[in-house]
Amino acid sequence: MNDPAGAVIGLDFDGTLSPIVPDPAEAVIHPKAPEVLAELGAHVLAVAIVTGRPPATALELGPGLADVPRLVVLGHYGFERWEAGQISGPPPPPGVLEVEARLPLLLESLDLQDVTIEDKGRAVAVHTRRSSDPQGALARLRDPLADLAGRHGLVVEPGRFVLELRPPGMDKGQALSLFLAERAARSVMFVGDDLGDLSAFAAVRFSGLPGVNVCSGSAEVTELARQADLVVDGPDGVIALLEELVGAFSRS
Ligand SMILES: O=P(O)(O)OC[C@H]1O[C@H](O[C@H]2O[C@H](CO)[C@@H](O)[C@H](O)[C@H]2O)[C@H](O)[C@@H](O)[C@@H]1O
């Protein structure tokens, strides 16, 4: 990139900036991330964290992020936005509360009490990573959760040992495309690790801008690596790449 001032750097949170851990509440950001993002933010048009997390959660799990220059968090797949200390977004859909009320009975009927529920406000995630049979539980949940989501106006977003029931009408690709247009970006890089990041990869490809798609590689998700221009070794590799970028921008 020879024009950093026109670049948007888009980054997923879990599995990209934050190493995957069993408990989502403990997925603290990589210790080097706030510093390298702050250095990057000084050079580029914007740093955009595009995540399925609520922006407030990403900021809680990323102490120091709120001080990164030119940082925007597009959370809840783009439904909710944090910028300069303010959070904005439409009201949560009523379907989320209805689904949350029905989930315990559904899980009991499937004898899947060892899966965990993450209440995200405008979405609810059902995690199987800590269950006795993570892959089997995921397979058994797929159809019942799709049915439950559909009956309450929600869709299912699959991820790494998680099925998230969330409102339709927005995804990371749309969120990133809208942001690139809003900022009149002249180039873009997106870094992600999970299936929800594929739409952002597509947004980069269809933007017509010079762009790079980077996969934060893992054995759990292989499709993203197939579609990436560059694969790095998980969050450690992402940080090393960002450090290289900062070095190159500082020298130019
Ligand atoms: O868009 P992202 O920032 O990648 O968020 C996607 C989901 O990530 C979280 O779950 C994942 O990370 C957890 C912590 O490492 C891990 O335990 C879980 O197995 C992963 O699926 C988060 O909890 C979800 O709410 C996000 O939607």
Automatic annotation (TrEMBL):
Question: A Gene Ontology MF term for this entry?
Answer: metal ion binding
Tell me the protein's name.
Trehalose 6-phosphate phosphatase
Q: In which pathway does it act?
A: Glycan biosynthesis; trehalose biosynthesis
Q: Which family does it belong to?
A: Belongs to the trehalose phosphatase family.
EC number(s) on file? 3.1.3.12
GO term, biological process aspect, one: trehalose biosynthetic process
- What does the UniProt keyword field contain? Hydrolase, Magnesium, Metal-binding
Name its co-factor(s).
Answer: Mg(2+)
Top class in the EC scheme: hydrolase
Under InterPro entries, the record lists:
HAD-like_sf (IPR036412), HAD-SF_hydro_IIB (IPR006379), HAD_sf (IPR023214), OTSB-like (IPR044651), Trehalose_PPase (IPR003337)
Give the top-rank taxon of the lineage listed in the UniProt record for this protein. Answer: Bacteria
Q: Which reaction does it catalyse?
A: alpha,alpha-trehalose 6-phosphate + H2O = alpha,alpha-trehalose + phosphate
Biological function: Removes the phosphate from trehalose 6-phosphate to produce free trehalose.
